[in-house]
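Following up on my earlier thread - several people asked me to post the actual chain instead of describing it. Fair enough. Here it is, all 333 residues.
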Amino acid sequence: MQDVSKDVKRAIDLIKKPQSGTPYYSNYCTSFIFGTENQEGINSVIDYNNKDVLTVASSGDQYLGALYYGAKKIDLYDINRLTKYVSYLKIAAVKHLSYQGFKDFFIPMDEQGKVKKSFWNLKTLRRLLPEMPNEVGFFWEQIMYAVKKDNYGTFVNLNALCNKEEMVVNGMPFYANEADYYTLQAKLRKRRYPVFRSADIYQLSKAFNYKYDIVYLSNIIETIVAMEVRKYPFAGYGTEDRIEGEVISVLEPEIYKVLKKTGTVMLSYRANAYLEFVPGRIGNFSTDYLYNSLYFEPTEIPRKLSEDSDEDEYLAKKDIVLTYKPSKTGRYV
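Reply from S.P.:
Thanks for posting it. Predicted structure:
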């Protein structure tokens, strides 16, 4: 329990002494409650069914999406150790709560943008404690009162656009539809909790001695590049070709160690961006190396997030899934 006790201490630090600046992407940092990726669209590109998947933990939505669409084995990694506890709590909630009960418990904001009383309600949380692995239940038991008392601090991102119910359900059938929710619940009840290991993408082979059909990187590469260029974690859509190329050249050998020869890398997910420039079209366009390499295959899918404001007209109306299949190109980059 030594590591868990450290996790508890660092989580309480985030709650009581919120981080300043950009509180993302380190061993102990802000966690997301819901994801920014359209899992229905992603599945149409990479096809989870009967696959072995290594995916980022993040909010747990990637795990739930892979399971819902039929993945066989799913292991989780994340540089942020606290994502394990958020993901496992979400899994427990889907396993044991009704459809409406889950939405009440896990969607944080009401229509007026205020935190709902039912969000991470202590009575429901206590009910879920014995349903989680011992160390996860211990973690939540230690922090649950501090979380409620101190208004979450920067432990989680409450006000993110992806936490609005209309955004939560986009591209996520098991959140949008009651019957699909219970389909996912039935699948979860047949499974043990997934393996989670704290690791960044440069050290996946040290954490996982296995080869997967799908290695899912989400938007990690773009985040690394954005931090290098702008000291800000959310990607721009410029022409940072040199940095993107350097990151990929270092990362590739590590990915091959955990990827089957016929496997697929979900290399990147870019939200609210078009692939090609069209005169007169407003929005972000992907002109950089990452989305224009001969080795990588970009696919536009329906977007997940949209702004309920005048700003939305400046957002592209598509998301892009970028994949890489070494066996298809016949060579490594």
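The CA atoms of residues 126 and 141 lie 8 Å apart. That should answer part of your original question.
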